[in-house]
Amino acid sequence: MGKAFEQAAALILSGDRELWSILAVTARMSLCSSLAALALGVPLGIWLGACSFPGRRALLVVNRTLMGTPPVVCGLLFYLLFSGVGPFRRLRLLFTVPVMILAQVTLITPLVVGNLESYVTAVAPPVRETARGLGLPPWKVFLLLVNECLYPIFSVYLLAFARAIAEVGAVSMVGGGIAWKTNVMTTAIMQYTNRGDFSKAIALGIILMALSLGVNLLVSLLQGGVRR
Amino acid sequence: MNFPAFQKSYGRRTVLAMPDFALEPGRVCAVLGANGAGKSTLAKVLAGAVPADGGQRVVPARVTVGYLPQRSFPFRMTVRQNLLVTGGGRQRAEELLSALGLSPLADRRAALLSGGELARMSLARALMRPCRLLILDEPTAAMDMESTVLAEGLLQRTCRETGRTLLLVTHSLQQARRTADDALFLHRGRLLEQGPAGRVLYQPDRPETKEFLDFYGS
Fold first, then answer.
1. For labelling alongside A43, which of A141, A218, B23, B175 has CA 20 to 30 A away?
2. CB contact (8 A) between residue B129 and residue A135
3. Could you read off the pLDDT of A54-80 as tens digits, one per residue?
4. Do B49 and A127 make contact, defined as CB atoms within 8 angstroms?
5. Pairwise CB contact (< 8 Å): B73 & A140
6. For position B57, which CATH number holds?
């Protein structure tokens, strides 16, 4: 075990090209999917939290169900959609990074929506009542709500990124873990472990944890600037 | 300014049943009553924050209404920005900040204000909007005596100078006596008395009002 850690440290310091390829694919996939989920989920979460309309409860139930979607089920769905018998086969996206991003956006967006909706449900009534008393137009009320939600938006982004970078089920099914192309850290850790190449698996594990820590620190710093 | 009769119920419970009533322009009308009398419900219905039963429109569309709820929300910005977000001019904002002793706090974040300071900021923000009917729900409840007197003076001046009608919901009989020209007395969701403050607040007709005055005036 100790030797594996030594080898892992040496591997990280050596600048192994395959390792850098895995890191680059992971970064591209996690950043794109978490940002896309945020772009979709923030307006949806605010809308569901702030507005009352027929069918809102049903939408909340659907979203809460989607929050618990098993990644392999999501992976299976996208595999079927983009495989040789699926409706989107002509796009030839199976085993590419874009379809991995699509699958992750599908998994993460309900988490963003659900978390933001809970916060907005609590904060929207007093904001709306105050804004109505001041005669503010609806677009201004929406902007004020977004402004009130900046801090939770950062927290939700952290959650989305953590889910994206640590996800393995869906990305291995639709990405295939192809070396130099779709292999991300989680799928690579599985492959190296299966091959008995523990030093590389541990090296990736250390980098994964360090990246997660780095993103957490960065977001914490940004959150510090978003004062109440 | 005439208002038609309306009711407000939550479920099967009617919390407010108002006959038709009128408010005089440029005057301060205090709404008094014990807890649960329906004062805040009256303010909310008139402000359009909650609908009257049957979705009835109580305030005519031509009447612009400003409303300060009991728990006004401080937006996540500075005190000055909280006033400017209403779209009123910078000069008006500075005048109101100064009138309520908020100028030294203008660049402070609203979330860092004390309860009394927050109440003053909320009142200043509510006064930014030009409107014909201004409804204030317990605007000075969190203020100290000095700030309360400042606020009352500002409200009276504003009504006189702009011709605005002010509906002041308060549980303070002393405040009503100091500031109001007219008064409404609510008891268990019903309007028991309305008229000049000098009569309603000193020589009421109804025993419930007398009991209220005896209790709160002593």
1. A218
2. yes
3. 999 999 999 999 999 999 999 999 999
4. no
5. no
6. 3.40.50.300
